[in-house]
Fibrinogen C-terminal domain-containing protein (Oreochromis aureus), 124 residues
Amino acid sequence: MVNMEDFDGNKVFARYSSFSINGESDGYRLNVSGFTDGGAGDALNSHNRQKFSTFDRDQDSSSVNCAKTYLGPFWYSSCHHANPNGVYRWGADGTIFAVGVAWHQWKGHDYSLKTISMKIRPLQ
């Protein structure tokens, strides 16, 4: 479950019935499926099956290091539709493209969210 809030107090979510991360030998690859829309849209779809990238370990499928370019680690593909580890900024701000805490399908690349949280629970 991913919960989000913008600076106007609007709240949305994206729910995934399946979320797992592979081990170190596979680059901590992300696996998500079973999307349910709570108004946010499915920004993680483009990150599915991607390895985790950091400043010093570029494992994304882009020609640039997305973690360096967008200032935070994540499961980047050709960079991002979701950037929950981006720079905390105040809402709409296009001064530096897409570096904020973003969920593209809801607010676009140039809007940094007030809050975002990812909640994961173990299989029963």
